[in-house]
Structure formats: C-alpha cells, structure tokens
Known about the structure:
Blueprint: E1 6-12, E2 21-26, E3 29-33, E4 38-40, E5 43-45, E6 66-68, H1 74-77, H2 80-86, E7 91-95, H3 96-106, E8 117-120, E9 125-128, E10 131-137, E11 145-151, E12 154-158, E13 182-186, H4 203-217, E14 222-225, H5 229-242, E15 248-250, H6 252-263, E16 273-275, E17 285-288, E18 299-302, H7 311-321, E19 325-329, H8 343-348, E20 356-358, E21 366-367
Parallel strand pairs: 3-6, 6-7, 7-8, 12-13, 13-19, 14-17, 14-18, 15-16, 15-17, 19-20
Antiparallel strand pairs: 1-2, 1-21, 2-3, 4-5, 9-10, 10-11, 11-12
The protein binds zinc ion (ZN) (2 copies).
Amino acid sequence: xxxxxxxxxxxxxxxxxxxxxxxxxxxxxxxxxxxxxxxxxxxxxxxxxxxxxxxxxxxxxxxxxxxxxxxxxxxxxxxxxxxxxxxxxxxxxxxxxxxxxxxxxxxxxxxxxxxxxxxxxxxxxxxxxxxxxxxxxxxxxxxxxxxxxxxxxxxxxxxxxxxxxxxxxxxxxxxxxxxxxxxxxxxxxxxxxxxxxxxxxxxxxxxxxxxxxxxxxxxxxxxxxxxxxxxxxxxxxxxxxxxxxxxxxxxxxxxxxxxxxxxxxxxxxxxxxxxxxxxxxxxxxxxxxxxxxxxxxxxxxxxxxxxxxxxxxxxxxxxxxxxxxxxxxxxxxxxxxxxxxxxxxxxxxxxxxxxxxxxxxxxxxxxx
Length: 368
Ligand SMILES: [Zn+2]
Ligand SMILES: [Zn+2]
C-alpha cells in the first residue's frame, strides 16, 4: 500500500526545455502533468515514458489514469498521441482553447486522442478518488492553466508555463487562494539571474518590432519566421497594435490557429491581415513557420521571444507562494556560471522564505 506517499519523477523537460512530462504518484493515484516533445537540431524527442517501468511505481502504463495538459505549446502537448498509444484509457484534461490550438497543431494525430479529452474551465473542481483537481489562469498564452491538486489535505500546485505580467492576448496568472505545500514550477529563468525584462513588453519582442519598422520604412518586405505557431498569433497582435498600417501575410499553419482563436471569440485579424497565397511585392510582413526562400531580397527575421517571467519575477513569485517544497523544472542552466545568485540561493538568504528546492534530473524520483 502506498497510503499517503507522494512521488515526483520528471520524464522530460527537467533541467531543459522540451518534452515536458512529469509523473506524480499520490497514494494509489498516478498522474501525468503535461506530455510534450522537444527537438534538438531538428530531431524530435519525446518524454522517457519507459523510465517509469524501471521503478516500483507502476508496472503498466494503464495505471496512469489522468493526464493534465497545461497549455498548447508543443513542448507541453505534442507527445500526447505517443502516450495514448501506450494507454488508450487515460482521461485528459485541458481548457477549451488549449484543445482548439492543440487540435490545429497536431492535425490528423489529434483524432485518436480526442475521445479521451475533457474540457475544463478555470476554477472548475474535479473530484477524483482521494484527490481533487482545480484549474487556474496561468497567463503566458491564451488557454494556459495552472493545476491545483488537493491530496489528503495537502495542496500541490503545478504551474505549467506561466507569466505574472499581461501579454497582448492574455492577462496575468491568478493564484489559488490556499496555502501551497508543494509547487512544481516551470521556472524557465530560475537560473538566469541576468535575464530581466524591460518595461511591459519582452525586450526580444520590442527588438523584433523595431527591426520590422526600420525594414518597412526602407521599403523592404520582412520575412518573420516563427517556430511555435501560437507565437505567430501573438506577433500578429503586437504588429496590429504597434504598427497599425502594416500589411501582414500569414501562412496556412498560423492561419489555422488564428481561426481557432476567433472561433472562441478572441479577435485577431484586421483589414490589413490576410492569408499568404503567393509572395507579395512591396513593403509588408510575411509571417511564416517555414524556412525563408533562398536568395530572397526580403529582410529575414527570427520571430522568437519569451512569454515567461524573468529572474526577479520568478524569485518574487516563489517568495509570494512560499511553498514548503519547490520542484523546479523546465529550467535550463545559464550559459555563464554565476555564483550565489540562483533562485534557490536568493531565497536561502530570505528570513521569511520557508521553501526548500529540488532541481530534478530526468528519471530521478523524489519523495515529496
Ligand atoms: Zn509555453
Ligand atoms: Zn514550455
């Protein structure tokens, strides 16, 4: 009997970004938090599901009864069809909007998992045997949710990717109003003390915008490549807002996500925005998920940016939640070595902080 034991094990997305997938055993209940894919140099990698079979926690994937999907970025959702091949019975929870965006991204692979998905709403509570789940706004991207699990009187919060600042398309994270015992934190910048946002908008986003602006006034067409289709939608919002006269041509894959947003009444398109059919002439913006054409005279731009809290905001967030235990995942190390200034070290010197930290590796189990 497992009684009230709580076990955590990362199957992917531990001290790196990509293939986020976290196993949580709460007594007899086995859950997965997220199920994403990563890629290095174009090669796709999935979570290490099989690592679970080398542990005493489960003998068969069918023992995992529930999967919670925080949001529609591929590093959190794209391996769901792989897992459903191992366990076709698990119940999967996500918000309606996440479901829409996941469907548009996974295309034909979505059909096989659709019957298992239940849409959930913010603040909805789902009672399961011996535990309950509830869902809270996470900021970051539309549809993103945090999951609060209550198990035997203990509160466990899985943040997924979150942001405590509003973006063009979504407001800030809204924390549940209960004391948190264990927080599983997607802390992208927890080990990047020099990463700070300037002002309200991510500095990378403002840089993209400035480059677009100067290219357009030089009469050039800008080819802006986005790696995550949902970030393309964010960029359209940004350009519409700051460069209201600019024309945008949008590729098929980003257009698909745009229409999903508009289906749930989040307006994205305006008059100057249209689908990309052939390459336009004259100063305009092409927004595409594909590599740029060779020998083009267009200005090529990388449209990547961060929708995550910076280092000081991450420290503040953990200080505010003040959990007993904080499991930090989705947390790549910095390229530069810093002494004494990671999230853990800053809070160690804070007399009001009661948090102890775990920075797990993939396949390394922890008793919480
Ligand atoms: Zn994300
Ligand atoms: Zn992520």
